[in-house]
Amino acid sequence: MATGLLTIDHGAIARNWTALDRASGTGTETAAVVKADAYGLGAAEVARTLARAGARRFFVAVAEEGAAVRAALGPGPEIGVFGGHMAGDAGLIRDCALVPMLNAPEQLTRHLQALPGHPFGIQLDSGMNRLGMEPADWAAIRADALAAGLRLIMSHLACADEPETGFNEIQLACFRDMTEGCDVPRSLSATGGILLGPEYHFEITRPGIGLYGALPFAQATPVLRLSLPVIQTRIVEPGEAVGYGCSFRADTSRTVATVAGGYADGILRALSGRGTLWSEGRPCPILGRVSMDLITADVTDLPAIPEALDLIGPDQGVDSLATAAGTIGYELLTSLGPRYARRHIGAAAP
Ligand SMILES: *Cc1c(COP(=O)(O)O)cnc(C)c1O
């Protein structure tokens, strides 16, 4: 088989949820964000693992993702939709019992007209200017929303992983201000906000990336291993070049392995000539360009040619790979391509 193997450790995902649940403190419910196919790892499998670990509330970005999570979990757990109630979504929201986080007065009107009595939350903008009602919108519809059975008020931090900016305190004060006197559960914090401390936790926290083993949750248990099979090796003599553009040229004799995996699989071209594959603690620098389906790496110093080289694993975590590629763990995970064989270790049975 010449596709990469992505191994997903569900025990680690459950441990990370439990650790973030503990960090959220007693009296705070810890939800789980499984948008974007659980950050590329498989929403159905991951949601079942998290439900088994104790999560009773999930969040997705759009209603279609909510439908997939509902199919995996069955009735019971609450599934919130950050994008709110968009035109055409009423059927999915009703049939899959989704809870839209309404972002604008028009969404509230749409929701109350299409699905009177159906639960909803409100997302407030506390300074990020991305999603959520502005203070004036909120003031205008607040009484209606509360009377219509509002069940959750949330907002989102723009700089949770950069406490030194001082912007978290500003958003916290704004969120407090806007929700004063509402007897409704509140949620402000994703992974980064949980780590800021108890004043950011309110009644519900919503971690995503930390569950999947990446920053800003530095204490996370690693979740992934990505192994790329070696298809072929060759000796490259001094003066010979490797790959598109001949961008690597050997000055000494090198043993070069060609492995399956490329930018079509989410392995960013930015790793060309500077990323590293690994074999049991030994680095194998990427030589030349990452191409669509293939990577060439220097295996000269390995004692033997292994069947596969690791791009992600014990020697190189998601965040160090992301840094080498000039990006962040979030983008790296959600770019993991559909072509990998995915092996779910310790997943809950469907
Ligand atoms: C993605 C997202 C989260 C989860 O954020 P992480 O940083 O991955 O923990 C929480 N809330 C909202 C609104 C989001 O968009």
From TrEMBL:
CDD domains linked? PLPDE_III_AR (cd00430)
Pathway(s) of this molecule: Amino-acid biosynthesis; D-alanine biosynthesis; D-alanine from L-alanine: step 1/1
Q: What EC identifiers does the entry list?
A: 5.1.1.1
Give all N6-(pyridoxal phosphate)lysine modified positions: K35
What does the record give as the active site? Answer: K35, Y244
Q: Does the keyword S-adenosyl-L-methionine apply?
A: no
Gene Ontology cellular-component terms for this entry are: cytosol
* Example GO BP: D-alanine biosynthetic process
For whether the record's keyword set contains Zinc-finger, the answer is no
Annotated GO molecular function terms are: alanine racemase activity; pyridoxal phosphate binding
Catalysed transformations (reactions): L-alanine = D-alanine
The UniProt record lists the Alanine racemase C-terminal domain at: 223-345
Q: Which cofactor does it need?
A: pyridoxal 5'-phosphate
Q: Name the keywords, alphabetized.
A: Isomerase, Pyridoxal phosphate
Give the binding site residues for substrate. R130, M292
Note the HAMAP family from the entry.
Ala_racemase (MF_01201)
Q: Which NCBIfam families match?
A: alr
Instruction: Describe the family membership recorded for this protein in Swiss-Prot or TrEMBL.
Output: Belongs to the alanine racemase family.
Q: What does this protein do?
A: Catalyzes the interconversion of L-alanine and D-alanine. May also act on other amino acids.
Q: Protein name, please?
A: Alanine racemase
